[in-house]
């Protein structure tokens, strides 16, 4: 019997035709993208990491389905294709990008609350 390739390709990897249990972990999902189970190389290009998330290599599903694991910290966002939490940035009042946030702990950030 022929196994469907989706049954052999785990999340976080992409697989080609004829993938076997011995080769299913050969191609880790590249950074900046996510690879749900059954992904092919063609799928990878359509699965760019969405804004507000970051995708290191090997993300196993749509980031929004994985809780806060790959979400930018509170009060920050990212552009599509971000590969690291260090690419998450604060939103400025004018809607543009602000400085890059160098920590995953956004607490203690000055808020300019003088009113």
List the helices and strands and how they pair.
Layout: H1 41-46, E1 76-77, E2 89-91, E3 97-100
Antiparallel strand pairs: 1-2, 2-3
CA distance, first residue to last residue: 71 Å
Radius of gyration: 18 Å
Overall pLDDT: 82
The helix-strand sequence is: HEEE
Number of separate helices: 1
**Percent of residues in β-strands:** 5-15%
- What's the story with the biggest beta sheet? 3 strands, antiparallel
Strand order of the largest sheet: 1-2-3
Overview of the molecule:
This protein is mostly loops. The chain contains one helix and three strands, in the order H-E-E-E. The longest helix is centred in the middle third of the chain and has 6 residues, at about 40-45. The radius of gyration is 18 Å and the shape is elongated. Residues about 1-5 and about 105-115 have low confidence and may be disordered.
